[in-house]
Hints:
Elements: H1 3-20, H2 26-64, H3 69-83, H4 95-118, H5 123-126, H6 129-162, H7 168-174, H8 185-191
Amino acid sequence: xxxxxxxxxxxxxxxxxxxxxxxxxxxxxxxxxxxxxxxxxxxxxxxxxxxxxxxxxxxxxxxxxxxxxxxxxxxxxxxxxxxxxxxxxxxxxxxxxxxxxxxxxxxxxxxxxxxxxxxxxxxxxxxxxxxxxxxxxxxxxxxxxxxxxxxxxxxxxxxxxxxxxxxxxxxxxxxxxxxxxxxxxxxxxxxxxxxxxxxxxxx
Length: 203
């Protein structure tokens, strides 16, 4: 038997030995990987929910503040950037792609904050029923995003610990499982601040 074939045989035997061992962690890795995917799917659902509110929100604000064209364009551009990124499960294995997606969502958040701030200068807009309804929906969506993001962070932390611990780290290496990117302290602080959507009447 030549050296390459012998090496492959050794690796195969080692893999089978690990799988035969109930402590190899393979099933746990599989389970936690699915948890991460499910948590990420919920994050995406809530981000999409927010994006779907934007066209109607712009239309309502535009009725009262047509001159705020730069703000409207900024929101539209941010929404377009977010939509251009394919946030598939594979993105979770690509640190650069993940951070690009998170940055785009941060820009979307900033643009929405500027749009909501416009309403402060237009009393008639603040009292408009359609705007109030959209405002409430946006607030609820931001809360859901925060919850979904928290669950994703926890799922990734647990997954990353498993594939770093012995002996499951060996199993992870054999089957190609790597650590997944997570929200950093910096972007978590940035995007965890929802757009200001509550207003107080000035006296």
